[in-house]
Design goal:
The chain has eleven helices and 18 strands. By secondary structure, the protein is of the alpha/beta class. The chain has a nine-stranded mixed β-sheet, sandwiched between helices. A hairpin with a 2-residue loop joins strand 12 and strand 13 (about 275). The longest helix is centred in the middle third of the chain and has 11 residues, at about 170-180. The two termini are about 35 Å apart. The relative contact order is 0.12.
Length: about 375
């Protein structure tokens, strides 16, 4: 199963909205077939492993990181009938599929076909590998990662809004790598007006013209449609789509202007005069997006935390002290009344990136 999990991880950033899956077929102590799901719309790991094994699969054991599928509402055929036909005697599954279209039905079908099934081998590792997929199918929203580049005293910009560059080159390149793996990058209109970002995954030169690798959908929260027509986030919309989320009070004329530029404009419900973040995330999921990197300013970050939609924080911390009550902090709005009401980070992972540190953690939902 460790080998199957290792194979599955090779699909990271490529399989959305599908999960990452690895499969290994063993017969008489020898691996006769192994594979992983490479991309949505392509054959599943079990099918590829069976194809590699051929007749050697008969009498063998399949180790697979996720319950095999049995439903038809997708682009590829279900795996269970092929497994039954292959002559496998046993299937070892790391975790059940939480997708309501599967949810134990694959296991039941295998058992009904007189194939022995065992569950739970390295289950926690499999769940961690597919935490994004699990979150999406159980909540109906994408997995949201709050990214922040800040000084050691928690400032993300000066009082004038200037923030380039707080962190060093290695930290910035790591951000581009993450952008190439998520489905979407989201910012608020304030970030666009201040920094005019392209929100593309770029190469080592860090130049907006050096776009490299898989590009995320760009999402701008803009309730008043203040987005400039010549903003960089509108460039390359045919290769890298841009979605503007706004509210019903926005200018119909500006909506038409943006749509003529190839921009998608979504009119969504509002909350306190701003676009509802939950509504935006729900629609992004309905469009097939599974992960969102939030590179917002302090107010959008605060909204995400207050609305309880943050799954992970990814904080790049530079060895700088900015000081000043007027400097912009990572989380805007009002602070809690007491320290006990602060949001606590759990399971932090620390990584050195040149002169900076990357802290990756989740937020304790009980705080």
């Amino acid at each position: 199963m460790k080998r199957a999990l290792s194979l599955a991880a090779r699909g990271k950033g490529k399989t959305s909205p599908n999960p990452m899956v690895g499969a290994v077929i063993v017969n008489q102590g020898r691996v006769v077939g192994e594979a992983y799901h490479r991309q949505a719309g392509q054959p599943h790991a079990e099918v590829l492993a069976l194809h590699q094994a051929g007749p050697r699969a008969r009498g063998g054991v399949l180790y697979v990181t996720l319950e095999p599928c049995c439903h038809l509402q997708k682009r590829t055929p279900p795996c269970v009938p092929l497994l039954v036909q292959s002559g496998l005697t046993r299937v070892c599954v790391a975790m059940a599929d939480p997708n309501p279209q599967v949810a134990g039905r694959g296991i039941q079908a295998l058992t009904k076909a007189k194939i022995e099934v065992s569950m739970g081998t390295l289950e926690s590792e499999a769940q961690k590998l597919n935490e994004i997929y699990i979150h999406c199918v159980t909540t109906g929203r994408p997995f949201l990662i709050v990214k922040g580049a800040m000084t050691i005293d928690g400032k993300i910009a000066t009082h004038t809004g200037q923030s380039q560059w707080i962190t060093g080159e290695q930290a910035r390149q790591d951000v581009h790598h993450v952008r190439s793996q998520v489905d979407a990058v989201m910012v608020g209109i304030g970030t666009v007006l201040t920094d005019n970002p392209a929100l593309s995954a770029r190469g080592s030169k860090g130049d907006s013209t050096q776009r490299k690798g898989r590009q995320p959908v760009r999402v701008v929260m803009d309730s008043q449609l203040r987005l400039p027509i010549k903003a960089k986030v509108i460039q390359w919309v045919h290769e890298q789509p841009t979605i503007i989320c706004t509210i019903a009070q926005a200018s119909p004329t500006k909506i038409r202007t943006l749509e003529r530029q190839g921009v998608q404009v979504w009119v969504l419900p509002q909350k306190n005069g701003r676009v509802s973040l939950k509504a935006a995330l729900t629609k992004l999921r309905q469009k097939g997006l599974s992960s969102v990197l939030l590179e917002g300013g302090s107010m959008l970050n605060a909204s995400a935390i207050h609305e309880g939609v943050v799954n992970q924080v990814r904080l790049y911390i530079a060895p700088l002290i900015m000081g000043g009550q007027d400097a912009k902090g990572l989380i805007g709005g009002m602070s809690p009344k007491t320290v006990n009401q602060a949001w606590r980070l759990v399971n932090p992972i620390f990584k050195k990136l040149g002169p900076d540190w990357l802290v990756t953690a989740t937020i304790d939902r009980q705080t």
